[in-house]
Amino acid sequence: MTTAPERHIALPLAANDRSSPAATPRIKLYKRRIAINHPDPEAGERLLAEALGAADRDALHGMLRQLAKASAIGQKPDEANLAFMISMIGSIAPKDSIEAMLISQMVSIHMATMRSACRLACTDNLPQQESVTRALTRLSRTFAAQVEALNRHRNSDERAITVQNVSVQDGGKAIVGNVTQHASMIVAEAGADGAHGAVA
């Protein structure tokens, strides 16, 4: 499956300004290509890249190919599933390439989870029910782990502050070790030389 005509360079597409949201263009699936349904092809690519968190044209078309494969019903990509997946990715709003990939995996795992839930509801065969239940459980746990990973990635800016090059004046005391502040108390863990203590 191919997407757009041959591309020789990767061009940035995602706009930095999200203050004026526009509708995400629809995707049309053909036998050998994926088309972005928008009156202005460049604007359509830009809007879709912004929704998917794609940094450039190559990333955009690569993600579309992967999502189309994940949308398949009976080995045939499905436009309605693909539209749903793109809408979900856009609503979560990936902020960088890591988030774009992770969120794409999340919607793909969600699709597989719902397919498994449908299989479970439609089978009366006990061995099949057990097999599908195991798959459904694994997929659900994977999705929960992905949500947690996304939250950790998004909160990675809230890192602990490390202070170095501290000087101590005559008569002063220093704490050697890892220091963590809890409410109104600073607690120091034992350092290499065994020093420890607490300062209110």
What does this structure look like?
The structure is a single chain. Helix 4 (97-122) runs antiparallel to helix 5. Mean pLDDT is 81; it is low at 1-11, 15-21 and 194-200. The longest helix has 29 residues, at 126-154. A hairpin with an 8-residue loop joins strand 4 and strand 5 (197-199). Helices cover 48% and strands 10% of the residues. It has 200 residues and is mainly α. The protein has a 3-stranded antiparallel β-sheet with strand order 3-4-5, with no helix packed on it. The protein has a two-stranded antiparallel sheet with strand order 1-2. The chain has helices at 41-52, 57-70, 79-92, 97-122, 126-154; strands at residues 26-29, 34-37, 179-182, 185-188, 197-199. It has 2 domains: 26-154, no CATH class; 160-200, no CATH class.
Which key phrases capture this entry?
200 residues; mainly alpha; 2 domains; two-stranded antiparallel ribbon; 5 strands; disordered N terminus; disordered C terminus
Helix and strand arrangement:
Elements: E1 26-29, E2 34-37, H1 41-52, H2 57-70, H3 79-92, H4 97-122, H5 126-154, E3 179-182, E4 185-188, E5 197-199
Antiparallel strand pairs: 1-2, 3-4, 4-5
The topology string of helices and strands comes to EEHHHHHEEE
Q: What's the story with the biggest beta sheet? A: 3 strands, antiparallel
Instruction: Give a count of the beta strands, DSSP E runs of length 2 or more.
Output: 5
Strand content range: 5-15%
Compute the gyration radius: what is it? Answer: 25 Å
Enumerate how many helices there are, as a single number: 5
Distance between the termini: 65 Å
Q: What structural category characterises the helix and strand content? A: mainly alpha
Query: What percentage of residues falls in helices of 4 or more residues?
Result: 40-55%
Mean pLDDT: 81
Task: Enumerate the spans where pLDDT stays under 50 for 5 or more consecutive residues.
Answer: 1-11, 15-21, 194-200
